[in-house]
Amino acid sequence: MRLEPVAGILLRQWYLLRGSPVRFLPMFAWVAIDVVLWGFISRYLNSVNSAGINFTALLLGAVLMWDLFTRVMQGVTTGFLEDVWSRNFLNLFASPLTVSEYVTGLVIASIATSLIGLTVMLALAMPLFGLSYLALGSQLLLFVAVLYGFGVALGIVASAMVLRLGPASEWLVWPIPALLSPFCGVFYPLSVLPAWMRAVAHLLPPSYVFEGMRALLQGRASPLSSVLFAAALAALEILLAGYCFVRVYRYAVRTGLLARYSAETVS
Q: What is the tens place of the pLDDT at every residue in 29-48?
């Protein structure tokens, strides 16, 4: 893999952001809304709670971690959709750019923009609502890495889905995090789920993250092996997602789908 084409994809994403300051707004606006809304909900629950449970850490902390995953996933997909909306695929792949270089550029750009959102998130949540992740200790880095990895994998799969089904299928992409959240146990332990949902949850790395977070915040031990397994699972899913994207791309080239890409393309 060559660094120059990857840097070119990053530079293009930067020019898109610099050319339209409105694109910066989603990095801050939705994060700020989530912090304020869930921060005050958590503060209210703490005021009426007599069991000594810290809802700021359990609810607001979980929401912001899930928001982080969502931003990574949507960052990859949005970068891909920029090329869909501008009908730029033929220009890109008429060059010596490879699929791996293209996807790597999108992933790095998504991670960079999500880090901006993470900074805003912490800058608001810590002074306003006293949220601190210090209780998670060194495992916090593993939790964030797992969420980043799964977000990247899901973003690549969502991009492959749009490439295969056509631009109109982008409306199938945005609800994906909401559809997965009940299985990941963002707000509740997996033990409350029926058996079939738990089976699905065990295939989703975020479920291990949120189970571990709750254990640590409630003063219980969180098995490091579970988080390491989640990290390995996320890495495997990134590889499978990359393989899926390459297969779909080759199909689009072989069938001419890439050349006649339009909002009406569904086959």
A: 778 888 888 888 888 888 87
**Phi/psi of residue 174, each to 5°?**
-60, -35
3-state DSSP: the chain helix, strand, coil percent, rounded to 5?
80, 0, 20
Cα 46 to chain center, whole Å? Answer: 29
Residue-wise pLDDT for 140-190, tens only, equals 889 999 999 999 999 999 999 988 887 778 788 888 998 999 999 888 889
User: Is 177 part of a structural domain of the chain?
Assistant: yes
- DSSP category for residue 169: G
* Inter-residue contact 34 to 67 (CB < 8 Å): yes
Residue 265 lies in a domain: no
Give residue 52's domain range. Answer: 3-254
Q: What's the whole-model pTM score?
A: 0.87
Of 72-76, 89-93, 262-266, give the range with the top mean pLDDT. 72-76
Q: Give me the residue label for tokens 């610099």.
A: 18
104 contacts: CB under 8 Å, gap ≥ 6? 1, 6, 9
- For residue 263, tell me if it sits in a domain: no
Angle at CA 161, nearest 5°, toward 143 and 97?
85
Q: How many domains would you assign to the chain?
A: 1
User: Do 81 and 170 meet the contact criterion of CB atoms below 8 Å apart?
Assistant: yes
User: Three-class SS of residue 264?
Assistant: coil
